[in-house]
Write a structure and sequence with these properties.
It contains four helices and three strands; from the N terminus they run αββααβα. It is of the alpha+beta class. It has a single domain, classed as GMP Synthetase, Chain A, domain 3 (2-Layer Sandwich). β1 and β2 form a beta hairpin. The longest helix has 12 residues.
Length: 80
């Protein structure tokens, strides 16, 4: 799987204000900014992202995904 394919999958199921992906085709690191993360705990945010990938996680197309998740406000503070 390419970074573009993975990004398209995530963006199809989760409105993102910002997303970056790095990886080798199986092991990925993502930074994701979405208003849908407002009021959600870290585990809920990660579950929301994993839900966008569905079977891709179970069939090993995406073997590992590490991520940092931010709300738009958190991201603005991070970037300042």
């Amino acid at each position: 799987m390419t970074a573009q394919e993975l990004q398209a999958l995530i963006e199809a199921g989760l409105p993102c204000q910002h997303i970056t992906l790095e990886g080798d085709g199986r092991h990925w690191f993502a930074t994701i900014v979405s208003a849908e993360f407002d009021g959600k705990r870290l585990i809920q945010r990660h579950q929301r992202v994993y839900a966008t990938l569905g079977e891709k996680m179970h069939t090993d197309e995406v073997h590992a995904l590490s991520m940092k998740t931010y709300t738009p406000d958190e991201w603005a503070k991070q970037s300042a």
